[in-house]
């Protein structure tokens, strides 16, 4: 959990740098949804990344 929070803070810092000089106190104190959703954890799996539940697994074939 701590790592996820630290990474969100890093994404917030990057976002704030891209905003430029006009930062409010609220900008500095606010983590936004995108700061968290930027994580790979929320990436959707691409085709072939996860096995299809309908496919037979090697252990299942022996039973």
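^ Assign residues to that structure.
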């Amino acid at each position: 959990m701590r790592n996820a929070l630290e990474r969100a803070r890093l994404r917030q810092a990057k976002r704030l740098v891209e905003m430029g000089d006009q930062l409010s106190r609220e900008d500095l104190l606010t983590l936004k949804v995108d700061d968290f959703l930027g994580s790979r954890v929320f990436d959707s799996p691409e085709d072939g990344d996860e096995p299809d539940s309908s496919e037979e697994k090697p252990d299942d074939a022996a039973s």
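Helices lie at 2-19, 25-29, 33-37, 58-61.
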